[in-house]
Amino acid sequence: MYVIELALKLSPLPLSVQRKNLGDAQALYNNVRQCMDRGQQRLLELTCEKVEGKKLTVLAQEILAVQMYEKTAATGGTKRPGFSFEA
To answer: Could you report the per-residue pLDDT of 69-81, keeping only the tens digit for each?
Structure first.
């Protein structure tokens, strides 16, 4: 399972969706990057393949960063790379 995670302006928590295969995850990652690059006021709707019915809609100009990583059983799913904060 692959996670695509977004960091938004003025939001301490990231938003994430998941894809089952690498090709789909990379396509979504590239789509988000293109939306960020254009800088247009555009809505971007994302769906999640793991959680049925989960949808996110964000204003593309509010995205600060996007990351993609593989969710593995070895990490236990509790520690995310990148945008996570440690208490």
So the answer is: 998 765 555 555 5
